[in-house]
Every structure is written in C-alpha cells, then in structure tokens.
C-alpha cells in the first residue's frame, strides 16, 4: 500500500485534515466491525483516507462522516473480494432474507430488562460482530454511529426500505443471540 | 395497520424516523395490540442496553501517525485547488425508496430538498408540463388531488389579489409525490409545493435565494409549503402573505 499521497496541495491537505481526521475513531470503529480484524481494519482506514484526500476536491457533501463511511465501504468491498478469492467463505453472499431469525419470538417469560442486565461491552461487541452481513453494517451505522435511515441508505447504496428491514432483522438476530447466550449455563 | 407493517415501523418509531401522522398510526396500533406493545417494550429495552455500553473502538496512535505522515505539509495557500474540482461524483446515490415505509420517513435535509424544489420548478417550465389539471377554479383543482397524495393541499384562489390560479400538478421531490399548485403573476410562474411535515408546529415564513430563484417556505397546520418563482422577493413574500391570510380566514377551497 502506498504511504505517501500523490497529491501535493498543502492548503487542500490542511482543509482535509481539519474535516476528516476528527472522524478517525468512527471510521476505524466501522472498519473493525465490517472486517472483524484489527490489522485489516487499519489498512482499510488508511486506504480510505488516501482515497478521500484524492477525491476531496469533488466533495460537495453529504456530511463528512457518511462520505468517509461510503469510501471505507468501497475499500472493504475490495478486501472482501480478496478474502473470497483466497478462501471459500464469502462474507457478502447473504441475501436479506437469509437470516431465518423470526422478528417475533413468542412466549418470552423473561422480562427483557432482566435478560439484558449485566451485559458488558465485550459481550455485546462479540454478539454484534457475529451478526451476518449486511445486517451487521446496518446495525453498526445506526446504533453506534447514529446515522439516520437516509444516511445509511446512501452509505450502503440501498433504498431506505431495505435499511428498515435490515435493521429490524439485525435487532431480532441480536436479541435471539443474546437470549441464547443467557440460557447457556455459565 | 397490520402487525407485519408494525414490525418494521416500530423500529422507525423508536429511532425517531416517523413523521407525526405515522407516529399516531403506530401508537394507535400498539395501544390495541398486546403483541406489538410487548415488541415495542423489548426493542426499547434492547436499545437502552446497547446505548449503555461503549461499543466504539479507538484508532491506534500508530495509524493516526501513518495517515498524518501521508498528508502533504501545510504551506502557502494555492489557487490550484480551486481550479480542480468535480473530480468525482458524489458518494450519494439516488434513493429508490418506495411504498409505505419511505413515505413515512421524515426528511430533514433542507438544502437537498430546496435544490430538488428548484429542479421541479425548472422541469415544470420546460417540458410543457406545468399543470396536470388546468383550471382557474379552486373547486376543480383541489378535488383533483384526491387519492393522488397522502395530504390534501389547500387550494386558494388569489386572482383578486393579483395571483391567478392556473392549475395543479403532481410532482416528485425527495423521491415522493408532492402536490404543486400553480399560480401566475404577469409572466411569472409560481409553483407552490405542499408536503406533509414531521411536526405540527407552525414555522414563520422565510425567503431564500437558491440558484437564482426565490424560495419562500413556511409550515402551518401540519404542512410544509415552498413557494418558488423568479418573481422579486418582495412580490413572492406578498404572495405568501396573501396565501396564509386566506388560509386563516378559511377561504381555501
């Protein structure tokens, strides 16, 4: 991966630094959830920032953060393709209806509050990371980055209706996984 | 509303993405449906649990340094940056949302909507498609919208005040159908766009200039209004004031 940007315009670099670097943790967080590998995430974030700088002249919005996310997503796409060709397991091949988790699980005796009590960050991170794509991406953009449905639709390049159904299914999957975890003897 | 619809819309409700009308619909459904009420409570609880922990990661300092090092150092400003540009298309894609869910969504991206209003105005002037229903009678124009929109745009005849009603049109702004009421002042066309709003609050009118057109926008009675024209700002303001005044006196047809 090239380490120096081809572009040498210092004023542009300064504007870019001011606009884009404050979002570094956000971009890194998304990369970690999308790629599920810290070292791949670092490479992807660096590539994302280099591409963003290259295209910064043409940037007219949306907000900087979703713009960076959209670029990061394209970087990750390439990484997924590389992984798919080097192993048989493709990450992206799940269709929206692939998750068979029902939106509604009947007969919940356990109150939700009790069930979720005591959940720590590392448990939730692990459960979120275990969600299948594209539900994981939708969930992270909404719950961790607080993007609006429309912003998520723009980042993921899908209709808003798809965002809504993915989010509903992501939450249902997370809840089921969580409940399954609680039922296991410690 | 069916439970299947509610299954999806419950999420939009807790995420604050529904407009006022659909908030009411979903809440009405939940009030009469124990199953969906339990769902709603469960999703709220899940949301609280997820929000209560820090799920973010922090970029390693080495990564930050690597990116910093890859950026050119600041020097004197250059003019070249201004001359380049438009190198890349926007990362935003056209939104092809359809159906129930999309119409229910709140739109808050004002600048984008204004730019679409201008586009819709320009389209209406170009293609010989200024009106779908051509009539100077408000009692013809208003019923024409029935069943075509999820709102009933008020149609006011302002001919006596110097703004001639010439018809109505169905247009598309923000990927959804929107009512346009068309007026004429001398040779100038005024498009008045009407759409449902997220809040029932009224907002006082303000006039802005966008791509050379004046846009006067206000909110009242759960509706958003955008009046756009190449008229002078003062005349457009006069139009807006007279429209609002006749709404208040109840002469809308």
Largest sheet of chain A: none
Radius of gyration of chain A: 18 Å
Please compute the radius of gyration of chain B using only Cα atoms.
Answer: 23 Å
Task: Tell me the series of helices and strands of chain B, N- to C-terminal.
Answer: HHHHHHHEHEEEEEEH
Counting copies of identical and different chains, the oligomeric state is heterodimer
Largest interface: A-B, 71 and 66 residues
Specify the overall morphology of chain B: flat
What's the mean pLDDT score of chain B?
78
What percent strand of chain B? 15-25%
Commentary on this structure:
- The complex is a heterodimer of chains A (186) and B (253).
- By secondary structure, chain A is an all-alpha fold.
- Chain A is 64% helix and 0% strand.
- Chain A has 9 helices and no strands.
- Chain A starts with 9 loop residues before the first helix and ends with a helix.
- Mean pLDDT of chain A is 80; it is low at 1-7 and 88-111.
- In chain B, helix 1 packs across helix 2 (20-31) and helix 1 (3-14) runs parallel beside helix 3.
- Chain B has 253 residues and is an alpha+beta fold.
- A 7-stranded antiparallel beta sheet of chain B has the order 1-2-3-4-7-6-5, with helices on both faces.
- The relative contact order of chain B is 0.11.
- The model of chain B is unreliable at 75-107 (pLDDT under 50).
- Chain B starts with a helix and ends in a 5-residue tail after the last helix.
- The radius of gyration of chain B is 23 Å and the shape is flat.
How do the strands and helices of this protein lay out in sequence?
The complex is a heterodimer of chains A (186) and B (253).
Chain A: H1 10-20, H2 24-35, H3 38-54, H4 64-86, H5 112-116, H6 121-130, H7 135-143, H8 149-156, H9 160-183
Helix pairs in contact in A: 2-3, 2-4, 3-4, 4-8, 7-9, 8-9
Chain B: H1 3-14, H2 20-31, H3 34-51, H4 61-70, H5 80-83, H6 99-103, H7 110-126, E1 133-134, H8 138-144, E2 164-173, E3 176-185, E4 188-196, E5 203-210, E6 213-220, E7 223-229, H9 233-248
């Amino acid at each position: 991966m090239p380490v120096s940007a081809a572009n040498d315009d210092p004023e542009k670099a300064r504007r870019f630094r001011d606009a884009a670097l404050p979002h570094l943790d956000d971009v890194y967080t998304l990369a970690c959830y999308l790629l599920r590998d810290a070292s791949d995430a670092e490479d992807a974030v660096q590539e994302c920032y280099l591409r963003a700088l290259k295209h910064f002249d043409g940037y007219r919005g949306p907000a900087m953060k979703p713009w960076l996310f959209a670029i990061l997503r394209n970087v990750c796409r390439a990484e997924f393709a590389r992984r798919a060709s080097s192993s048989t397991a493709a990450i992206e091949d799940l269709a929206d209806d692939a998750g068979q988790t029902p939106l509604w699980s009947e007969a919940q005796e356990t109150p939700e509050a009790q069930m979720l009590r005591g959940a720590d960050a590392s448990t939730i991170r692990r459960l979120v990371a275990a969600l299948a794509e594209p539900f994981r991406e939708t969930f992270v953009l909404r719950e961790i980055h607080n993007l609006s449905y429309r912003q998520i639709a723009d980042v993921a390049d899908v209709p808003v209706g798809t965002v809504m159904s993915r989010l509903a299914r992501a939450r249902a999957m997370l809840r089921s996984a969580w409940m399954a975890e609680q039922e296991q003897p410690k | 509303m069916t439970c299947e619809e509610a299954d999806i819309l419950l999420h939009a409700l807790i995420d604050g993405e529904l407009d006022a009308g659909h908030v009411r619909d979903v809440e009405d459904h939940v009030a009469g449906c124990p199953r969906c009420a339990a769902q709603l409570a469960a999703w709220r609880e899940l949301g609280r649990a997820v929000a209560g922990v820090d799920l973010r990661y922090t970029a390693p300092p080495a990564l930050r340094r690597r990116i910093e090092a890859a950026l050119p150092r600041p020097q004197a400003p250059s003019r070249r940056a201004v001359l380049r540009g438009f190198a890349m298309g926007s990362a935003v894609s056209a939104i092809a949302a359809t159906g129930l869910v999309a119409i229910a969504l709140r739109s808050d991206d004002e600048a984008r909507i204004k730019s679409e209003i201008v586009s819709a105005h320009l389209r209406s002037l170009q293609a010989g498609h200024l009106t779908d229903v051509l009539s100077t009678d408000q009692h013809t124009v208003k019923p024409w919208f029935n069943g075509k929109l999820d709102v009933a745009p008020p149609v006011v005849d302002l001919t006596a005040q110097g703004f001639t009603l010439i018809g109505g049109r169905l247009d598309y702004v923000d990927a959804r159908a929107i009512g346009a009421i068309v007026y004429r002042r001398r040779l100038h066309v005024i498009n008045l766009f009407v759409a449902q709003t997220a809040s029932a609050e009224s907002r006082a009118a303000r006039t802005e200039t966008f791509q050379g057109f004046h846009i006067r926008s206000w909110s009242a009675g759960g509706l958003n209004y955008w009046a756009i024209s190449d008229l002078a700002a003062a005349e457009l303001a006069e139009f807006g004031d007279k429209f609002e005044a006749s709404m208040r006196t109840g002469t809308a047809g």
